[in-house]
Amino acid sequence: MRPTLGNAADPPPVAKEPSIGGIPLFATWPQNQKPDAAIVLSGETFGFLQPCGCSRPQKGGLERREQFILSLKAKGWPVAGVDLGDIYPETVAVMDQGLLKYKMTMNALREMGYIAVGVGKTEFKVEIDRILGEYALQKEKPPFTLAGNLLGLAGGKPQPREVRFPGATRPMVDVAEFATVGSVSVSVVGIIGKSVSEDVAKANFDSSITFEKNNRDFLQKVVANLAANPKKPELNILLFQGTSEEARMVAMDWPQFHVILCLADDSEPPQYPTEVTGKLHPAGQKTLVIQVGHKGRYVGILGAFKKAGGGVDLKYQLVPLGEEYITPGTEAEAQKANPILPILEAYAKQVRDRKFIDDVPRVPHPAQILQPKLNLTYIGSAKCQNCHAAEFVKWQGTPHSGAFNALEKIAKRPSLRQFDGECIVCHTVGFGYKTGYEDQIKTPQLMHVGCESCHGPGSGHAADPKNNALLALQAPWQQKPGDRLPDLAFMNKMASLNGIQRGQEKIAPAQLLLINKASEMCMRCHNHENDPNFDLYTYWPKIHHTAPPKNNGPNPNNQPNK
């Protein structure tokens, strides 16, 4: 799956009280009392700047995160943010586009008032120097990059972090950052856990870096420095690039950290933090180990309430970034009200102007690999109607036939997605494959989602329609020739049933396998991020078309192959 960008044609937000698990946000916090500091917790965004927008509802996106933060500020809350890292995408077709995403995300976090960010495996994978060159080298201002136990490696010997990552007034990769949020003094520390450092070393992403050998000794120095710091932080937050179990062990041994933000065990985060109390914790004190999930769909909010005798009481709230946080108003009004929207628009313009679409690798389609001598090419849906007239008419009446219009004419926040390969891949024919879609001028016949999006390059079949080997290539979901999805009546029936009722229906194993394989093909684009409501039983009737007749000739009356 390639992460997509945008939220097409969103209407004003729905007027309802946000909640999670049936509980209104902040219902368990002190009522009629503002927190003395509110800290936004995020991480593992993986390049997801905005939800796709192809289907609703969806969660996440930088626009909604900022709109949520603005709603807190409107209440008079003092707000800042910290991010665990893994801002760079997990997978990306064009490295420079991934780096641009990182840069724009950092710019957005600065606008949101973030203090610091960590460094994750995705950043190490693309090489830390490239990441630093996009922001830290250009802007010596928050959010600062923290990974205190990261070292250089030269001549087989470790280099101090200050030497390996020098900056004008501070290292580009630092140990900690201090800030005052509202009336609360806050420290943020970043380190790489053993599991991540070992994975990075094993993969040898970058031969010029290494890590402190002993995190225990390193943390001993860190907490000593926190205690001696003249700013006397009242709230210590650890950005811990490691597992929740590792984070729990750190919490047991280092009660000086009030909050540890760690890697999520699952894409869906737990609603409540893990509360850790060990032998070293003072009476009544606990450490909160927090996970916020993947792809920016949720953020956590930490509320700090100062106690009369010193210290702070902490409250936590997990927040799903739903449609309640779409910026209201016209597009012009939203662009002025939400400072993240111009950043997203600038991103889209650079994607267009730098022509990243031309840099997307074109690989052979499986059919082109299996039949190399035929030089199979994409020919466009219009060429299919000569023998498949009724199927062509059916296709023309589906959203697939105008899929490109959603990018060019409908998509907003940002616009210009017809120039973004991460969007184009699901709105054209054969993009990313040899002879597939290139652009609107060179390959206009391959705009939209057409016959060859599912059936593969069609030149061979058009030239030799009775070739059984080519027919098999055009139906890769089949286990054997002649396999057919269940009839339309069955699909409609299944669409009307709930999950339990569907499980009670008898389906032959071979037929179920066919249904699953067809669904998997659809979900290359209709995946959870792009279309969270996708269900083959519901969608198939909308595009239902029959198999060609046995003689492989024209099928003008759309008759099933019996």
What does this 3D model show about the protein?
The protein has about 550 residues and is an alpha/beta fold. Helix content is about 30%, strand content about 15%. The strands form 4 sheets. Strands 9-6-5-4-3-17-18 form a 7-stranded mixed beta sheet. Strand 3 (about 35-40), helix 1 and strand 4 (about 80-85) form a beta-alpha-beta unit. Helix 2 (about 95-110) runs antiparallel to helix 10. The longest helix is centred in the first third of the chain and has 18 residues, at about 95-110. It starts with 18 loop residues before the first strand and ends in a 19-residue tail after the last helix. Residues about 1-10 and about 550-560 have low confidence and may be disordered.
By secondary-structure content and strand pairing, the structural class works out as: alpha/beta
Helix segment tally: 21
Mean pLDDT, to the nearest integer, reads 92
The count of strands amounts to: 18
N-C termini distance: 37 Å
**Spatial strand sequence of the major β-sheet:** 9-6-5-4-3-17-18
Can you tell me the overall shape? elongated
Strand content: 15-25%
Helix content: 25-40%
User: How many whole angstroms does the radius of gyration measure?
Assistant: 27 Å
The main sheet comes to: 7 strands, mixed
pLDDT < 50 runs, ≥5 residues: 1-10, 550-562
Topology:
Elements (H helix, E strand, L loop, with lengths): L18 E2 L2 E2 L12 E6 L19 H13 L4 E5 L11 H18 L1 E4 L3 H6 L1 H7 L9 E3 L3 E5 L2 E3 L1 H4 L8 E2 L1 E6 L2 E9 L1 H10 L5 E3 L3 H14 L6 E7 L2 H10 L5 E3 L12 E3 L10 E4 L7 E9 L5 E9 L10 H7 L2 H14 L12 H5 L18 H8 L6 H8 L10 H4 L26 H5 L3 H5 L4 H6 L14 H8 L3 H5 L5 H14 L13 H8 L19
Helix pairs in contact: 2-10, 18-21
